Amino acid sequence: CDNKVIGSLTLINNDTKYFDTSKVLLGILGRSVSFAIANGAFYSDDSLSMEPPCIFDLFTACMFFFIGKSILIAIYWFMVTSTARFTEITVSCILQRYRTFNQSILGKFAYSEIVNPITSLINSITDDFDLFIALFISRTQFLLFLYYALGVRIGHDAILSDKQCLTDPQFVTIGDHVRFNMGACIQCHTFEQRFFKVAPAITHHSSVLMSASLVFPGSTLDGRNRLLALTLVLKNDRLPYNTHCSGVLAQKLQ
Fold first, then answer.
1. What is the pTM assigned to this prediction?
2. Fewest beta carbons less than 10 Å away: which of 8, 54, 85, 165?
């Protein structure tokens, strides 16, 4: 099949149907999905050649690592422990909100606008926060308070698994009594046509995301939905009220 991209863990057999070129096949069984392929995205003989390593990139990565650790050490060196922890949380939340400020306005970015020296420095600082603080507030109400600070709209009596369960907090809306099992994730961004695209995802009340289930951007769970383990809700899908779904791609169970 020419000009096609086949996703990871996709099953292709004689029953797989595809008619148009330049399509992305995903799922078990594989089928066309609503992702766009960039023009010239396929390999050419020239694209297989490896570029020599860049000393500047190595130096930049080491410098950002040093700056991030220096900020963390300075916070804990000049403040008492309780104040230092609060300061680290505040600095991390401010930096993460700064990093995502323009995303809710524009919604589409070139790769260089997302991966640049400023975001690399912010990531270096916030990685320490994820390791030393966020890890210990998983599945607690403190995690909800953190997500409130990052811009998530969360209802009452929601339980989230860890900080990694929402990759783009400012685009997520979660209703009352929603439950996340370990490994469940809502992702509100994709890389398509060499662009970083974001879209909101909404999970209405009393929904349950079981282990390793994944919800893509633009999706809506209408309420009382149950995603079984390893379920993929594709981009812009809408799950009807009071349904159980399973599979890659998500399908309603009888």
1. 0.78
2. 8
